[in-house]
Design brief:
Radius of gyration: 18 Å
Mean pLDDT: 91
CATH class of the largest domain: Alpha Beta
CATH architecture of the largest domain: 3-Layer(aba) Sandwich
Strand order of the largest sheet: 4-11-5-10-9-8-7-6
Order of helices and strands: HEEEHEHEEHHEEEHEHE
Number of helices: 7
Shape: globular
CATH superfamily of the largest domain: Gcn5-related N-acetyltransferase (GNAT)
Largest sheet: 8 strands, mixed
């Protein structure tokens, strides 16, 4: 899907709607979210366009974070216009971390499975939905932070697949800026391979269509091969890659 500058800005604003930070400041062409939690998107300065950004803004952005007592971080597209920023950030002690892909699809082009039995799309998350972020193999601090952040977002729906009273898979759908945003997708380890994630996406897409929204985006870790394979089968393509830039932390003693 071809994205205009307006489409890129809409996705970035919709992202912060879904993972609302404690503070958001704005500079020309930039959003400056600030948060004490673990969700990188909620605490990393992000450009609203992919043209060459003005490097002279970097000291101002750093000062804005420092003035509010937050550690500055950046979420930058992996693209030639940002190479000067990347060089300057390296020189200032920032590290390139967590390559991620922003993927998009027209909802009409999604290849979706038949809706699963036990599917629910609720206006608020229940305890079982929240507990999906605290399962085996997951970081409890990060999981608790993500579930709390998603649960306090506005204009969201919380998708669950339930069977015999148990929640087997969950996700969150945001509706804003003309986009369906897909967030927090989780499937219980023993239930993977059953197509439950696709069923969740199908329910979200149906709701988006009812709202007159025809586009969907998500962000996925570039190393998450199973998720990338699933999204490719469903029809998603990569709109742009990005990475986080954070200062190196001293070793824990």
């Amino acid at each position: 899907m071809h994205l205009t500058a307006t489409g890129i800005e809409a996705i970035e604003r919709a992202t912060l709607q879904a993972v609302p930070p404690e503070v958001v400041e704005e500079l020309p062409g930039w959003l400056l979210p600030m948060d004490h939690g673990t969700v990188g998107r909620a605490r990393s300065a992000v450009p609203l366009h992919h043209g060459e950004p003005d490097l002279a803004l970097l000291p101002t952005i750093l000062a804005r974070y420092e003035a509010r007592g937050f550690e500055a971080a950046f979420r930058l597209p992996e693209a030639p216009p940002f190479e000067a920023w990347q060089r300057e950030l390296r020189a200032r002690g920032f590290l390139h971390q967590h390559p991620t892909l922003t993927q998009t699809c027209a909802i009409a082009d999604l290849t979706l499975p038949v809706p699963a039995a036990g599917m629910a799309l609720d206006p608020a998350p229940d305890a079982a939905w929240m507990a999906m972020f605290l399962g085996e193999g997951l970081d409890p601090e990060d999981g608790a932070c993500r579930s709390r952040m998603l649960s306090r977002a506005t204009d969201m729906r919380y998708a669950s697949v339930r069977e015999d009273g148990l929640t087997l898979a969950c996700g969150a759908a945001s509706f804003g800026q003309g986009w369906l945003g897909v967030h927090g997708m989780r499937t219980a380890a023993a239930q993977r391979g059953r197509g439950l994630a696709g069923a969740l996406l199908g329910a979200m897409a149906q709701e988006a269509t009812h709202r007159g929204i025809g586009r969907v985006f998500l962000q996925v870790d570039a190393s998450n091969s199973p998720a990338l394979s699933l999204y490719r089968r469903l029809g998603f393509t990569t709109a742009w890659p990005y990475a986080y830039w954070r200062r190196a932390q001293p070793p824990k003693l």
